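Give me the fold.
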Amino acid sequence: DKVLMELIEPYELRAAKLREFLEDVKPSLRYDIVPLGDPYGPSVTDPDLQCLVVSEETRRGGEAVNKKRLENGLPELALYEILLMKDPDHSQNEEEKISSSSLRQRLLGTLLRPPRQDPALPSHPYVIGLTGGTGSGKTSIAKILGHLGAFLIDADKLGHAVYVPGGPAYEQVVAAFGAGILNEDETINRKVLGAKVFGNQERLKSLTDIVWPEMARMVKEQIGEAAAQG
């Protein structure tokens, strides 16, 4: 349940930073850094451990460790509680403490690596596809890109355009699904059409085989228009 877990640094990098910190604090210190494959790690199996450092928010985890140690026939660890450093510069949507979650929040909107150079892709126009579920922020990101000068192609609007009378998929869709999907004004009733294909993979494929190629063609036409506009 970590925030933005996709942006968590790799174990090797985290271990290297910890090693550098420990050596800076006290070069003579002996230590082992071990990856945790489960919530407990060696804390519930190592008989040589004597103390566990916790914070106010991880104290319950420390108590769970001691419970597990007793079950394993090991003595309880002394729990030494420390205060967490507060981050004076944290924003409203970040944690109050100094936190890697906040650092990941700040990574949003930054370029982690340069765009992949693929000789098979034309350098102009550069095409970005925005995908995601409802409420994932596609519209907001599109507006930001639009303000920066991007040419926007709204696939939802194209999806509606292919169905209108005279549209590229209109005749094929009516022929495939019958006049029963039409309103009185001859427009396609999308709710009636949706009910016909919902839960029926064969009918849904018939519809997408008609509509998607036409949408792809319209997208390519608009990309061409964007290129013409520079």
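DSSP finds eight helices and two strands in the chain.
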